[in-house]
Structure formats: C-alpha cells, structure tokens
Specification:
single chain; 13-stranded mixed sheet; 37% helix; 534 residues; alpha/beta; globular; disordered N terminus
C-alpha cells in the first residue's frame, strides 16, 4: 500500500490512498502479520478478533498496518569548529546553585547525552529578515538524533518580548512550512525569491521554528521517533540548553504553539517541561491551532462538517452522510478501546477504520481536506504549490550552507514518519487528558480556522466543551464574543473562562495564518499579552 503524498497532513491526518487493494492470499497475510508483530511485539490474544474483523471491514487493512518504514536521511555532520556555539548538556547538568542555604541542581533532567550547536545566520545572505538569527542542531548523542532549529529575534523589543516555539504537525511535516508559508518573517514566491511578511509573529515575539521529530526537514537520525512521548524529552533538552546558551531570552515568557498533529505534541511537551521543578524555561502558555487532540470527540464532527453543518455548503451526498453516521458508533467504540488500553494493537485498528470511514469519503471528492471551500489543486504538494516553492528554496546549496544544514536534501513532509506514528498507535491516543493539569498551571488556547476539514472547528469545539476539568461549567456557559481588528473588521469569535480559551477564526482553513495573516497576528499578540489569562 502507498500513501499518496497529497494525503499527508500539514498537521494531522493520514487519510489513505484511494487505490487500496484487497489482500491477495492467506500466505501474504501471514507474512504481513509477522512483520507487524516484529514491530509491535506479540499480538495479545484479546486483539486477534479485532484484527480479523478489521481485515474484513477495511480492504487492505493488514497491508496498511504492515507498512512500517524506517529510512534514515543521508547526512554529513559538520565539525564543532564550524559552529559559533557548542553547549554540552553534561556541563549544564552538573551545575549546582544554592537557594536559602539548600544546594540543588540548576536544572532537572537527563541532559548528559544532549548537546546544542548554534551559528549566527547572516541576514544579508538569505534576506528572510533583518533581525538577529541563529540556526543549529540539538544532538541526542546516545540515540544519534539531530533536530534542526531556526531562531528569529523579535522585530520589536527582544529584551522583553516573549519567546515562542512553533511546531508544524503531520506527523512528519517540517516547521519550515510554518516559517515560509504561514507566520514567519518571509514567504517564498514562485520565482524563488522571498517576500517580507508584515504579519509575521516575530513582529512582537522571538520565534523558534523546529523540525521535529527526527528525519523531518533538515533534522536527521539513524533511527526514528514513533511516538509523541519519546519526542517530549528532546523538546525539554532543546529549550534548556538554548536558554542556557542565550540567557538574554530566558527570563521572558515562553510559549509553545503549533497546528494539527501538534495537538498531540504540545500537551505532552508542556507536561514534560512543567514536570521539572528546577528549570530555566519560563513556560507561560500553549496555543494549538486546528489540532488533533481528542480523536473520540473530534471524529464525531467529520460528518457534520462534510454535510453542511459547519458553516459551508455540503460536499457529500446525503447517502454518503448517512454512511458516515452509520460508521461513527463503531469508530468511537474502537477509539474507546484505544483510550482504555493505549496499546498499538488496539489503537492501530481504531485509526485505520476511523480514517477510512470518516476522512476517506471527503477525500474521494477531490476537495481540499485543509479547506472545504476549494478543490485540491496540487495533489503532489499537499494541495498547495507553495510547499514545492519552499522545498526548492531550502534545497539551494547556498541556503543550506548559510543555515548549517547537514542533510543532503530537504523535503516538506516525510510520509514514512507519518505512517510510523499511525502504525505505532500514537494517532488515536487521548492526549487531551493532560490538558486539565496544564490549565491549573498555565493558560491554554485552542483556535481553529472554520474552513478546515481535517481538524475542523466543530471537532475542536466539541472536545473543548467535553473536557473534564474544574472550570468546565464556566467555560461551557461562556458566550462567544467577536474578534476584530483595530478597524472593526471581524475575523472570528472567542470564549474564555479560567485558563481555557477557544477561538473560531472565520474564512480560514487548516493553516490559519496563511488565510488570515492580520487576524492571526492580532489574536497571537493579544494571547501572549495575557488578555485571556485567568
């Protein structure tokens, strides 16, 4: 089975190729199941009936589940002498401080095997912005993992403005897409030149764009990361070492934001950071855009969004809408089992069945899963030609040299990573359960462009309202209020209670800053400014 490139999500889905084939032969099925067992471990007896059932309900089910791929990216590591900064995690880990007569580590954690490399990026060579910039790698030496990042200082007041980490989703899509297509200081034009972005989020904040997990974008490894929890330790190490090396940014408020599969990433990453009592990371908030966070709740809203109940015309015929209604109870039953066990043997069938039943019908229409208002115009580039322009720009030798990139080439999304996350069961897991504890400590923003299908606003509203936390009643009773620019132009609506906020952004698809640049900058500045904090 192959996954069409156009179905990989800029942030959250793995809707599968339409041309799935029914398995051919008992002997092939046995071989494929053996391959799955090699990756997931021995199948529990209780899971056998479920897998047998899925093989009958979903054509090519075992073939899909056996497609576990790990292809390291070719690379050549540069010597430390070519970097302006090299920070050894072991040195940072060994630091002790004394507070009120009690000696303790300056930072908690597991930094011995991590190092950070950084170089100054000459703005005149690339022209992405005129501000101070750094690029480099976080190295996990023990596991041969190397994560690429690119930092842009705030255009306004970097000594006081907040610092934001931006994450694209996929899983398996580079955050350079967010940089050059959505909220970064420049975009790439069809001729390969850069266009200055007045609405960049670094207008009033310093922003770090990170390629994660490994083997995404400029990042690389001899192995792969298959789950969100494994990636969380990398994020803690990255920010700890970054703020140690650049203490001029460490005192400012720090926020994590991202879209799509970042709905999985961010709750886990924030929980990891907050779990460290002694830390140099001043985490003050998280923001998730069109995220996949609570699949059980969100999958219930695919039929309404596809069938005219989300504010736009119906894309599907009534018979197809009825079929989705009929499939939903089974989908949610499977997801409930996944939530209960969190086993890949349970979560993989749930993901494959639900994606085929709830995403497949929409995808087969040819409409853009990231924007219900239009047909998919470029199947090879996630429906957006801009992704090809970005790849062409970042594959230029002079650009790679200026940034210190150590891989042979850049691609916007890695389909192997996408499959690996799906087929290790990460996709269907209930990471929304981490949010109530996060809300107790820092503000949480959920925002959604209302023209997206794949992680649509109805689903994000659904899980936000369903979330069990101490302020649930106050949040659910809160009224939606208009979001407007200074000239009075309304671009969305918002409700907030306690430390929890939900926004619907009008006339925006999966990538809100792409469709609503001025509106996204407005709510972002107001968000990091504390307007909706408890």
């Amino acid at each position: 089975m192959r996954v069409a490139t156009s179905t990989l999500l800029l942030g959250a889905s793995a809707a599968f190729a339409q041309e799935q084939q029914v398995l051919g032969g008992f002997r092939d099925s046995i071989k494929q199941l053996e391959h799955v067992s090699d990756a997931l471990g021995e199948m529990p007896a209780a899971a056998k009936g479920l897998w047998d059932e899925m093989s009958l309900l979903v054509p090519g089910f075992v073939e899909q589940a056996s497609n576990l791929i790990s292809r390291p990216k070719p690379h050549q590591r540069k010597p430390d002498s070519q970097w302006d900064h090299v920070v050894k995690g072991a040195d940072v880990q060994s630091m002790w401080v004394e507070t009120d007569g009690v000696k303790h580590r300056k930072v908690d954690g597991y930094l011995e095997d991590y190092n950070l490399r950084a170089k100054k990026v000459d703005p005149s060579k690339l022209g992405a912005d005129k501000v101070k910039q750094y690029s480099g790698y976080l190295d996990d030496e023990a596991n041969d993992k190397h994560l690429f990042y690119w930092f842009f200082e705030s255009r306004n007041d970097p000594k006081n403005d907040p610092v934001v980490l931006w994450l694209n989703g996929g899983p398996g899509c580079s955050s350079m897409m967010g940089l050059f297509m959505e909220l970064g200081p420049s975009s790439v034009k069809s001729d390969g030149n850069l266009k200055f972005n007045e609405a960049s989020w670094n207008s009033n904040a310093s922003v770090i764009f990170l390629d994660q997990p490994v083997n995404v974008g400029y990042s690389y490894s001899s192995s792969n990361v298959y789950n969100t929890v494994a990636a969380s330790k990398d994020i803690y190490a990255l920010m700890t070492l970054f703020f140690h090396n650049f203490p001029e940014y460490a005192e400012q408020p720090f926020h994590i934001s991202g879209e799509s599969y970042a709905g999985h990433y961010i709750p886990v990453f924030a929980s990891e950071i907050l779990s460290h009592k002694n830390r140099n990371i001043n985490l003050q908030g998280i923001a998730i855009g069109n995220g996949l966070t609570d699949p059980y709740s969100q999958y219930s809203q695919y039929r309404p969004m596809a069938c005219g109940d989300g504010g736009y015309k119906a894309v599907l015929e009534p018979s197809e809408c009825e079929s989705m209604d009929n499939a939903l109870p089974r989908c949610q039953s499977l997801l409930s089992n996944c939530y209960e066990s969190e086993s890949a043997w349970t979560c993989v069938p749930a993901t494959i069945y639900c994606n085929n039943a709830m995403i497949g019908p929409f995808q087969r229409t040819g409409y853009n899963v990231y924007d219900v208002r239009e047909k998919c115009k470029d199947q090879e580039n996630l429906c957006y030609t801009e992704t090809a322009w970005i790849a062409q720009y970042l594959n230029q030798p002079e650009v790679m040299e200026a940034l210190g990139a150590e891989v042979q080439d850049y691609e916007s999304c890695n389909t192997d990573i996408n499959r690996n996350f799906v087929f290790q069961g990460d996709w269907g897991k209930p990471f929304h359960r981490l949010v109530p504890d996060i809300i107790k400590q820092i503000p949480v923003l959920i925002y959604a462009g209302d023209a997206d299908y794949i992680c649509n606003w109805l689903g994000n509203r659904e899980w936000s309202n369903a979330l069990e936390w101490s302020g649930k009643k106050g949040f659910n009773d809160a009224k939606m209020e208009s979001l407007a620019l200074g000239d009075g132009d309304k671009y969305g609506e918002v409700k907030s209670s306690g430390n929890f906020t939900f926004m619907r952004i009008y006339e925006a698809g999966h990538m809100v800053p792409y469709n609503q640049p001025e509106g996204s900058l407005d709510f972002f500045n107001r968000w990091v400014g504390g307007e909706w904090n408890a």
